[in-house]
Amino acid sequence: MKIQSIELENYRQYRGRVTVELSCDSSKNITVIQGVNGSGKTNMLNAVNWCLYGREEHLSKYNTKKQPIINDAELRELSAEQRVIARVTLKMIDEKDNDRFYQFERSIGARKDISGRIIFDRDSEFHAYMQIERDIQEIQETEMLINRILPHGVKSFFFFDGERLDEFFKEEKSEKVREAIFDVSQLYLLDRTIEHLEKTVFSIRGEVKGESPKVDEIQEKIKAIEGGLESSRQEKKEKEEKLRNIRSKIAEIENKLKDCSESVVRALQCQRESLEGRLEEIEKNIEKIREQVTDNILEIGPLIYCLPAVNDAIVQIDQKAEKGEIPPNIRHTFVKELLERGKCICGTDTKANDEARHRLEELLKKAIISEIYEEIIELKYILKPIKEQVAKFSEDQNLLRKNISSLEEEKAKIKSELQEVSTKLKGINVEEITNLEITRDQLRREEEGLIRDLGVIDQRITNARIMLDKLQNELDEELKKSKKFMEINEKLNLATQTLNALGTIRQKLIDDIRNTIENKTREYFLRLIWKKETYDTVLIDDDYGISVINKLGSECLGTLSAGERQILALSFLAALREVSGFDAPIIIDTPLGRISKEHKETIAELLPEFLKDAQVTLLMTDEEYTSRVRQLLSQKVGREYELCYDESRSQTMVEPYGK
Amino acid sequence: MATPRLRISKKILEEIDAQIEDEIVKELAKNLLRFELENWRIEKLHFKEFFINQLTIYCRKRMQKT
Q1: ipTM of the complex
Q2: What is the reported pLDDT for A338?
Q3: CA angle at residue A209 from A204 to A214, to 5 degrees?
Q4: What are the backbone angles phi and psi of residue A526, rounded to the nearest 5°?
């Protein structure tokens, strides 16, 4: 899917109608829109977001007065009883569907009443059109269509502000990514089918009554557990929803603090973010080491129990060796052969001489025992490493415990520093800031409580499910005893087989998608990162949270530089794009804003290769779009514009670059 | 007013074909998914009647076969 053009009409600083045509040429897939700060770059990104999703997510920190969407000058010059409209129109084509044309339009209006008061429309109006053969028809299920192009949850990986890359890897973001991936991969469809099939099975089982007291008794128990399970599921849903709301409120507060006009507040919030990043790293590392401790115990534990026996065996072997009992001084095959031949090496006929034969037979017995001793000597060399392994185990465990305790110390220190930041914010003599911080504190406490509650509910659900499975098996066994229930049995059998198959497919899809995103992100990140000797791998957990592991095996996401984060974000974006199949356009505001000069050029050089199949729009300042960067991108740039802001007319014009 | 087309994802269909050997289970699974997709927007969906009906049809098909 590509954006052919963005049309802005009286939208923020774009007065009148302004059209920006984006490059749809696959060989020159980049459009550059350059402009100084405040000229309207970010509002170009906002316009696309607002048009498709009804929200402007990248409002500048300078927009403190919450300026309306409709152009300022248009509103000022509005006569009484007149109406003005702000509109954003996106024209798009789907190359994978025979260049099917789509048009999305969002508008909002305002009018001036007779007393000169401006009254804004409460809601914006949204329309979407689609080409069907030669006709253009309005689309009914607009949300579904937009979800197919680019779901809300992943849009921030496609339309984003380079200066806000830190937000990419926050927990609430990863939840959204997970949701979106479930959505576009239709995993929710599988979930819903499984849920409904389970309920149907439950209802079929419920039909069976009065067959035997045993069946009725099991039914009663199942009913009671199902009731409890349903209310636990409901409770879980509600708490999860509450948790999501709390997290988004916290993020909102933190953004406000980060964009606050007081520099000290901004600095404290930045300090908090970096401390929280480090805290998260430490917690992950502690968890990793704890897992290592458990793994070691599981591996070496049985050997520890055997250690007294191992020691005893080694002592006994050593004693036998000292006594000269081992190794054997004669091989039993040799003695056996002498006996068979009936002749000793001294020439004595052992068949005729009982005493000589008897001596050889005695010698044979000893020789057989000596053969076993040979194996015993070998055993000594097997047992000794076990002893060493156990000794090393204690050393390793002590070292791991020391690491844990030093990380715990650091964790406690960071927690107290975080507390200090919070106290300082509460102590700032601005009521709004104090209140925001107090609210954030309360929300954090609520968040912790909810996480604990959810853990308990999960445990309750797991227990109920185990119990239910057991009872359902018992019921099925009872039903099999009666011919009357043959069809019901068959239905249950078929439903169970279908449930199992859908469950397996669901899990396979989840694993496949997550693994591929992890592998692709790792591949891109390690290929593009400049510190190749520092980083070892990139991991993505089941909830789509990212970890970067350095060569020492420690998690280090929180300490990545802005440029490194940019590379990670782009790697993740490219992986998501590839795996999810979202063929959505990419718009990046200030892509090189936080990058040092040398890395700016590296990223500019790599970017075209990186996003080679995507339509990319870069909104850059003059400091980013230097002549060197322009030169590096030149092969891939299909269209170039410059935003020129005319302060006297409160208006931005879009001109061809360098005009 | 037009409605965007609804399709079960290719990946899910491929997995169903690859993972399920029993033709009856395969067909039933696809039918149930199709029903869910067509009724995706309905929050309080009355699914039981359709599900029981499908199970009955396919269960009888299977019993006839054996």
Answers
A1: 0.93
A2: 83
A3: 115
A4: -70, -25
The beta-carbon neighbor of B11 closest among A140, A185, A203 is A185
Which range scores top for mean pLDDT: A101-110, A374-383, A523-532, B42-51?
A101-110
Note whether B42 contacts A: Cβ–Cβ < 8 A. no
What H or E segment, with its residue span, contains residue B54?
helix B48-65
Are A190 and B37 inside 8 Å of each other by CB? no
Helix ranges (H only) for A428-534 are: 431-480, 486-528
**A238-249 residue pLDDT tens:** 999 999 899 889
Average pLDDT for chain A: 86
Question: Distance between CA A154 and CA A131 in Å, rounded?
Answer: 26
CATH code of A2-150+582-656, in short, is 3.40.50
For every residue of A342-363, DSSP letters joined together read TB-TT--BTTT-HHHHHHHHHH
Whether residue A538 contacts residue A521, with contact meaning beta carbons closer than 8 Å, is answered with: yes
Give the number of beta-carbon pairs within 8 Å between A and B. Answer: 101
Contact A571, A528 (CB under 8 A): yes
Of A141-155, A345-359, A530-544, the one with minimum mean pLDDT is A141-155
The minimal CB distance from B51 to the residues A145, A197, A501 is found for A197
Unique residue bearing structure tokens 């909810």: A450
Smallest Cβ–Cβ distance between A495 and the set B9, B19, B55 belongs to B55
Statement: residue B3 has pLDDT above 60? no
Angle A569-A573-A578 from CA coordinates, rounded to 5°: 150
pLDDT(A454) > 50: yes
Nearest to A92 by CA among A466, A490, A645, A585: A585
